Amino acid sequence: MINGNFGDFTANLESLDIIKYFISHNNEINIDISTNGSARNKEYWQRLGRTGVQTYFCLDGLADTHGLYRQDTVFENIIENAQIFSEAGGKSIWQ
């Protein structure tokens, strides 16, 4: 479980390489990532989804209240990132 207590894992520029490293050493590993889903671009979320990891998208409210709790994030972008991730094969849980 990569939970982001010390920062959002997806903001790490090497996060995809780290996931691929884990998988290359154990192709049966279960990897869970907790994220607010606001970092990175669409291509990143598609590539992360293809790895098959499970991701918890942590949302605080809906479009009208989310920004009160998750400063400097855009609710609509997070929803789009989660959809792209799921369509690429990622397993998502909305938390």
What do these coordinates show?
The protein is of the alpha/beta class and 95 residues long. It has 4 helices and 3 strands; from the N terminus they run αβαβααβ. The protein has helices spanning 15-25, 42-50, 66-69, 75-87; strands at residues 32-35, 54-57, 91-94. Strands 1-2-3 form a 3-stranded parallel β-sheet, covered by helices on one side. Strand 1 (32-35), helix 2 and strand 2 form a beta-alpha-beta unit.
Q: What is the average per-residue confidence, as pLDDT, rounded to a whole number?
A: 91
> What's the end-to-end separation, in Å?
15 Å
Counting H and I runs of at least 4 residues, what is the number of helices? 4
Give the spatial strand order of the biggest sheet: 1-2-3
- Please describe the biggest sheet, giving its number of strands, its sense, and whether it closes into a barrel: 3 strands, parallel
From the spread of the alpha carbons, the general shape counts as: globular
Summarize the amount of helix as a percent range: 25-40%
Number of strands: 3
Helix-strand pattern: HEHEHHE
Supply the helix-strand structural class: alpha/beta
Residue windows where pLDDT falls under 50 for at least 5 positions: none
**Fraction in beta strands:** 5-15%
Radius of gyration: 13 Å
